[in-house]
Each structure stands twice: as structure tokens, then as C-alpha cells.
Amino acid sequence: QVQLVESGGGLVRPGGSLRLSCAGSGRTFAKHAVGWFRQPPGKEREFVASITWDGGSAYYADPVEGRSVKGRFTISRDNAKNTVYLQMNNLKPEDTAVYYCASDPSGDGVLRANFGSWGQGTQVTVSS
Questions:
Q1: Which end of the chain is more exposed for a tag (fewer CB within 10 A), N or C?
Q2: Separation of alpha carbons 14 and 94, rounded Å
Q3: What spatial distance separates the first Cα and last Cα of the chain, rounded to whole Å?
């Protein structure tokens, strides 16, 4: 079973940057797609980005699904380190949320229902 631990959250000013890390354990982690999700205060959890098991494709939240992150956030992975990253640039107050990573054993990160293992989350607060 895959276990996930997020890190890298914190308090940042608008326009600043943070890099979140999702460290995975388990023999099959490198074959899992990984997604980042976030839950703003008082709101439902929403999809942010996902990446296929081999890093060959990445998907980002559609602007109609929520607040746009494409062009500001970049998801990447280093399977040698069993880690997936979310680089967040030009952060805005509306990016404030608890950020979670989750793994998808299908490897493609397309169907949200396939994300079964979740981390505990890391808080990101964007405020001046």
C-alpha cells in the first residue's frame, strides 16, 4: 500500500512562490499517477493537478472547475526519489487552502475516483 506525506506549505505573500513535496513509500509508488488537490477554508476539496506515473503527461484544473492554476503551478516528479512536486508561483490569496496529494494506481491520473491513497495535507496561506 502506498503512503504519502506532504511538506512545503507555509505562509507566503501574494506574488510569492512555494514548492510542495509529496513523498511516497511503497514498492508500487513509482507506477502510480499522483495528483494534488486542495481544500480552501469552508469549501469542498478540488482538483489542482496530476501527473502520470512516468511523468510523461500532466493535467491541470480546468478554469471552469475552480480557480485557474495553469501557467502558475507546475507538477513534476522524480521517481528516483519517490517524490512528486507542485511548484506554485505568483500565489494569490485565493490559493489559500490545505493541499493534499493522492495516488492513482491506474497510472494515468485522469479519473478522480481512482485516487485512493491520500496524505495528511499541508497548509498554504497566501496573505499580506
A1: C
A2: 10
A3: 40
pLDDT, tens digit, 9 for 90 and up, residues 92-102: 999 999 999 99
Name the average pLDDT for the chain. Answer: 93
Task: Tell me if 3 sits within 8 A of 26, measured CB to CB.
Answer: yes
For every residue of the chain, which 3-state class applies, written as one string?
CCEEEEECCEEECCCCCEEEEEEEECCCHHHCEEEEEEECCCCCCEEEEEECCCCCCEEECCCCCCCCCECCEEEEEECCCCEEEEEECCCCHHHCEEEEEEEECCCCCCCHHHCCEECCCEEEEECC
